[in-house]
# Entry
Amino acid sequence: MQTPVKKLTVPLFRAAVGGERRLTMLTAYDYLWAGIFDQAGVDSILVGDSLAMVVQGHSTTLPVTLDQMIYHGEMVVRAVRRALVIVDMPFMSYQVSVKQAIRNAGRIIKETGADAVKLEGGAIQSETIRGLVRADIPVMAHIGMRPQAVRQLGGMGKIQRHEQQLLDDARAAEDAGAFGIVLELIPEDIAGRITASLSIPTIGIGAGQHCTGQVLVGPDMLGLNQGFRPKFLKQFGHLREQADTAVRAYVDAVQQGSFPDADHSHQ
Ligand code: KIV
# Structure
């Protein structure tokens, strides 16, 4: 029998502000990795639209569809017992109107069983955040570098330095009812001032050490994703090399005839 665990809910996550322990978040896109992250004690699992790049091999996050986010969200939710599961709203699933956003976020919550959704934007999405919260759908906002704005920004990875705009975005998201905000690629001191100005958690990625919590893309921090090495990324593992070594050893063993051996054969 599995031992009972205390599930992290939106109010518990929100209450982490001012606490002693920082919140941890990783992205995961399937049952296998979500289970590993959950059992290792990660507080929140984000089914990020980064799956367009990390899993599907696109060069931006724009192509992933709502149905695909739901498909991956379901797998993650099935694996998780404790962590708060948040599913990203993909590009063009919420920008058209508040009604469109409520309909699509409602599908995510109903069909995946996730705890909350995330969307990109602060002030510009405040009406949408308000509408979702009114429909009882918890929302995390995402400000700073917004990957879905890649066409407007002229590329990903640009540090966002307009402090007043960032403070206004964060304040607008909190006032509209967001329970947390991702801060992406923001100088550490600005991220610290945003965090100090809010009563909801900030989750940083490339935003320094003063945020309430941190998020990284799971495969990036495991060292599975070769070739993506921004300054903020720390690889806590080197799984690409280990996988490569294991697969080469398997190919070699089969080709040489040393596998399967007597220990791995039924007599
Ligand atoms: O899609 C994603 O992985 C994200 C994180 C980088 C925060 O939005």
Summary: The pocket of 3-methyl-2-oxobutanoic acid is lined by residues 27, 46, 48-50, 88, 142, 182, 205, 215, 217 (CB under 6 Å). The longest strand covers residues 139-144. The beta strands are 23-27, 44-47, 84-88, 116-118, 139-144, 180-184, 202-205, 213-217.
